[in-house]
Design a protein that fits this description.
The complex is a heterodimer of chains A (113) and B (113). Chain A is 0% helix and 53% strand. Chain A has no helices and eleven strands. In chain A, the strands form two sheets. In chain A, strands 2, 4, 5, 6, 9, 10 and 11 form a seven-stranded mixed beta sheet that branches. In chain A, a hairpin with a 3-residue loop joins strand 4 and strand 5. Chain A starts with a strand and ends with a strand. The model of chain A has no long low-confidence stretch (mean pLDDT 93). Chain B is mainly β and 113 residues long. Helices cover 0% and strands 64% of the residues of chain B. Chain B is built from no helices and eleven strands. In chain B, strands 2, 4, 5, 9, 10 and 11 form a six-stranded mixed beta sheet that branches. Chain B has a five-stranded antiparallel beta sheet with strand order 1-3-8-7-6, with no helix packed on it. In chain B, strand 4 and strand 5 form a beta hairpin. In chain B, 38% of the residues are buried. The chains are: A mainly beta (113), B mainly beta (113). Chains A and B meet through strand 5, strand 6 and strand 10 of A and strand 4, strand 5, strand 9 and strand 10 of B.
Chain lengths: 113, 113
């Protein structure tokens, strides 16, 4: 158990819908990262937040957005969902200077029908 | 940007030694990390090399050559539970004062009796 929690574990929805994925980092970790993992694209970095502020942005679509709240939990919002958005979404957290050592949550498996 | 190359699949016998190679191209290289992911599970951190040389952690060792943009993960005394995917990742500068971890596509290791 990494100490990172994600909800929900599974999500099935329809094209065009909007969903919110939730992540709570390990106690004391200020950084939260979001990744998308699909069979053909591997593990893709989406976005990083550090202590409530956006720190780095990767290949995140404009239909996707995220935020980190004062209690450090984070939410990833996916809107206008397409079939291709079906994937595993991981949240990870790390300490201030430990970007290389990230602790991953169990993931949310999203299926868009 | 960053790119990494690693073999897609490797098969090895229980009790043997296996080496998983990783070559990378990146701007502003800071270090090479390795993660393990079992089917259906979350990636877990294995090791990190910032300097040239070999880092040993139990049965696992990781090597880095910055001049060759090359590293490898060495797994000794293979056990069936080592069957998993192994990802190399580089922390690189992505601009505007931010860094991100870019993952390779992963090497699926199958350990056979």
């Amino acid at each position: 158990d990494s100490g990172v929690t994600q909800t929900p574990k599974h999500l099935i929805t329809a094209t065009g819908q909007r969903v919110t994925l939730r992540c709570s980092p390990r106690s004391g970790d200020l950084s939260v990262y979001w990744y998308q993992q699909s069979l053909d694209q591997g593990l893709q970095f989406l976005i990083q937040y550090y202590n409530g502020e956006e720190r780095a942005k990767g290949n995140i679509l404009e239909r996707f957005s995220a935020q980190q709240f004062p209690d450090l939990h984070s939410e990833l919002n996916l809107s206008s969902l397409e079939l291709g958005d079906s994937a595993l979404y991981f949240c990870a957290s790390s300490g201030e200077d430990s970007q290389e050592t990230q602790y991953f949550g169990p993931g949310t498996r999203l299926l868009v029908l | 940007g960053q790119s990494l190359e690693q073999p897609s699949e490797v098969t090895a016998v229980e009790g043997a030694i296996v080496q998983i190679n990783c070559t990378y191209q990146t701007s502003g290289f800071y270090g090479l990390s390795w993660y393990q992911q079992h089917d259906g599970g979350a990636p877990t951190f294995l090791s990190y090399n910032a300097l040239d040389g070999l880092e040993e952690t139990g049965r696992f060792s990781s090597f880095l050559s910055r001049s060759d943009s090359y590293g490898y993960l060495l797994l000794q005394e293979l056990q069936m539970k080592d069957s998993a995917s192994y990802f190399c990742a580089v922390r690189g500068y992505s601009g505007a004062g931010s860094y991100q971890l870019t993952f390779g596509k992963g090497t699926k290791l199958s350990v056979i009796p």
